[in-house]
Amino acid sequence: MKSRYTAWLFLFFAVATAGMFSGCSDDENLPNNGRPMINYIRVTRPEASDSLIAKAGQGSMIAIIGQNLGNAREIWFNNLQGTLTPTYITNNTIITRVPSQIPTQISNRMKLVFANGDSLIHNFTVDISEPVIASMLGEYANAGQVATITGDFFYEPLTVTFTGGAQGNVVRVEDDVIEVTVPEGAEPGPITVTTNFGQSKSDFWFRDNRNLIATFDGPTEGLWHGPDFIKESDPDITPINGKFLRINRELGAWAWFEFYVGPNNSDAAKETRNIPAAAIANPKNYVLKFEINTLASLTGAEVRMYMGPGDMGSERGNTHYIWKPNISTDGTWQTVSIPFEDFYVANKSFPYTESGYGVSFHFSGPLAVNANFALDNMRVVPVK
Question: Nearest-5° angle of CA 198, CA 201, CA 206?
Answer without folding.
Answer: 145
